[in-house]
């Protein structure tokens, strides 16, 4: 009985750690993504095409990082037998995003 309680407690600690870590990672990445989008949208002035290209690549990488963090959280929910949140996807936007990533 003590082993089961210990295992449950360890599992809960791990889940909490993953949730906190995910939030701590997601927040600065979202800030970076937002700032890069501000620059990309021209709010800081005109941007040379080559610089624009690299900014867009950086935005894509930040988006990928946020997606990986969200996937980690989804996995954690799934491993705890909790329902994974569902979201609607626009297949055109998804295809465009994936095509531009590579």
Please explain how this structure is put together:
The protein has 102 residues and is an all-alpha fold. The protein has one domain (2-101). The chain has helices at 2-40, 49-79, 91-101. α1 packs antiparallel against α2 (49-79). The protein starts with a helix and ends with a helix. Residues 13-81 form the Signal transduction histidine kinase dimerisation/phosphoacceptor domain. This is Signal transduction histidine kinase dimerisation/phosphoacceptor domain-containing protein. One of its GO terms (molecular function) is phosphorelay sensor kinase activity.
What's the helix and strand layout?
Layout: H1 2-40, H2 49-79, H3 91-101
Helix pairs in contact: 1-2
InterPro entries: HisK_dim/P_dom, HisK_dim/P_sf
Protein name: Signal transduction histidine kinase dimerisation/phosphoacceptor domain-containing protein
GO molecular function, one term: phosphorelay sensor kinase activity
State Rg: 19 Å
Number of domains: 1
> Care to count the β-strands?
0
> From N to C, what is the helix and strand string?
HHH
- Helix coverage percent of residues? over 70%
What is the average per-residue confidence, as pLDDT, rounded to a whole number? 84
**Mass-distribution shape:** elongated
Largest sheet: none
Pfam families: HisKA
Domain Signal transduction histidine kinase dimerisation/phosphoacceptor: 13-81
GO molecular function: phosphorelay sensor kinase activity
Organism: candidate division KSB3 bacterium
């Amino acid at each position: 009985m003590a082993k089961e309680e210990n295992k449950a407690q360890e599992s809960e600690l791990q889940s909490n750690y993953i949730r906190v870590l995910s939030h701590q990672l997601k927040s600065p990445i979202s800030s970076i993504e937002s700032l890069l989008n501000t620059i990309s949208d021209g709010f800081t002035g005109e941007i040379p095409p080559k610089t624009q290209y690299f900014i867009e690549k950086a935005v894509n990488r930040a988006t990928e990082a946020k997606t990986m963090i969200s996937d980690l959280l989804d996995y954690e929910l799934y491993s705890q037998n909790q329902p994974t949140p569902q979201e609607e996807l626009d297949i055109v936007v998804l295809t465009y995003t994936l095509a531009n990533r590579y």
